[in-house]
Amino acid sequence: MSSQSLHFFTPSSTACPNITFPKPSLPAPNRRLAFASSPRTFSIRAVSESSDPNPAPPPVVVADNGAGSRVVAAADSSSIEVDKVTEAELKENGFRSSRRTKLVCTIGPATCGSEQLEALAVGGMNVARINMCHGTREWHKRVIERVRRLNEVKGYAVAIMMDTEGSEIHMGDLGGAPSAKAEDGEVWTFSVRAYDANRPERTITVNYDGFAEDVKVGDELLVDGGMVRFEVIEKIGPDVKCMCTDPGLLLPRANLTFWRDGSLVRERNAMLPTISSKDWLDIDFGIAESVDFIAVSFVKSAEVINHLKSYIAARSRDNDISVIAKIESIDSLKNLEEIIQASDGAMVARGDLGAQIPLEQVPAAQQRIVQVCRQLNKPVIVASQLLESMIEYPTPTRAEVADVSEAVRQRSDALMLSGESAMGQFPDKALTVLRSVSVRIEKWWRDGKHHEAMELPAVGSSFSDRISEEICTSAAKMANNLEVDALFVYTKTGHMASLLSRCRPDCPIFAFTTSTSVRRRLNLQWGLIPFRLGFSDDMESNLNRTFSLLKARGMIKSGDLVIAVSDMLQSIQVMNVP
């Protein structure tokens, strides 16, 4: 392949870089950059002044396949790994119809079996979430093993997210019952006593020793963000008698908040640590199991995130676990920018957030969190009560569909099912609704050319990082203007793939990486289709091999137009598939 290059020379002095612009001989713009003779490329590269203009191609990078063996990429169709569902969708529907919004499913009693997990993977689950509020570590270990086996044997790339319980006030286990129904007018007892098997009827244990002292008669007690409401009517030692004013379903270990005169009562609860002693044991468990993400509940400041990341770095073999900050409290909103900057991503936990701020403020808070995450190049998950009615019913309400549509329209990276998939009666149908609504809204966005003018500030600290940002911004803009079929990015760390995702281009982004763990983590980010592939610093060799492998699997065809970028060579190449 012959090519024409635009070089950015970066001398060691502080003088402005010399930039040369050779005139490209591209054809006039139209739907395709069709070439009459042999395929040609237009490339943009950033190189050092001291770089060898004709470097020898380095050896192909080898990568651990997650099972202890070493794999060297070879030019055959079996040496590239991609999620089998994504592969089938691309073959059947083409580039433009692939879903960009990622889907997270909470795993619980309804979906913990191997068959149920595979059904979720077939339905589009990108990340499996295990909630440490429920179940034992042994139970979660079995779920992790089943997900990993599904990936290895069946060819999926489902990532695993572990969600910590947090140290906020919450209920106990309901005596082993999966749920309990609180009816209007019923009187329930909330107690800090440690009961044995003989727990009195309509009695709920509370994990916070100061609960009975902090609440007052007349306070309003909200369970699980307001899904059930009680009024405090009497205090008797460690027991608090409450009358149900809004009936609903009580779930084990649901969060509790109480309000007085229309305001949230925080008092000593605000002094509880973000990460409890149980959370630290759960985090050790997550590190030992090499989960891909750890979501931290009730984050109050960036200091907590930095502390946890240092802890993980000291104990993790490869320090490849991303930390997700759950935004679900007033403190989280007050320190939003610094928390997100310190984290590897964020979750809009709307249920608990709605228990701490007025309900009418939740939509604006969600939009702000999504925008800040996008500006700071951090993936964001919109969670809680997306399809709450589907816990019991096979179809969602129209309002729930509108809510999901708005989250997709805001360009959130991912949507999350909680009780709908963990304990609902129709987990597969709930996932189907998320998938179909996401695809439909994304298509509407592309067809209508609704390109938003969001300001994306620079996030890189070095000159090289700023070059990478400019390259990705330019590549995404070119992809939209030229209506290319796909963006290719070769990345060892996933950083340039995330920069492309941040730009939200119309076409899908094929992210090629040598690392199995990086491939799984990229599964959380908008528009990325992660592949595992060994590659070198020779972009022409990488492209030729990639085209050959993808064509052999029927995922691309001759004439498709792609733009390729790389974090090793900092380059842009535009070309038709030969």
TrEMBL record:
Q: Which UniProt keywords apply?
A: ATP-binding, Chloroplast, Glycolysis, Kinase, Magnesium, Metal-binding, Nucleotide-binding, Plastid, Potassium, Pyruvate, Transferase, Transit peptide
Cofactor(s) needed for function: Mg(2+); K(+)
What pathway, per the record? Carbohydrate degradation; glycolysis; pyruvate from D-glyceraldehyde 3-phosphate: step 5/5
For molecular function, the Gene Ontology terms on record are: ATP binding; kinase activity; magnesium ion binding; potassium ion binding; pyruvate kinase activity
User: Can you say where in the cell this protein is located?
Assistant: Plastid, Chloroplast
Q: Name one Pfam family in it.
A: PK
What residue stretches are annotated with the Pyruvate kinase barrel domain?
Answer: 99-430
Domain Pyruvate kinase C-terminal residue range list: 469-568
**UniProt entry tagged with the keyword DNA damage:** no
Domain of life the protein comes from: Eukaryota
Q: Which GO terms describe its cellular component?
A: chloroplast stroma
EC numbers on record: 2.7.1.40
State the reactions this protein catalyses: pyruvate + ATP = phosphoenolpyruvate + ADP + H(+)
Question: SUPFAM superfamilies in the record, alphabetically?
Answer: Phosphoenolpyruvate/pyruvate domain, PK beta-barrel domain-like, PK C-terminal domain-like
Q: What class of enzyme is it?
A: transferase
Q: How does it assemble?
A: Oligomer of alpha and beta subunits.
Q: Which family does it belong to?
A: Belongs to the pyruvate kinase family.
Protein name (record) = Pyruvate kinase
Q: Which organism is it from?
A: Linum tenue
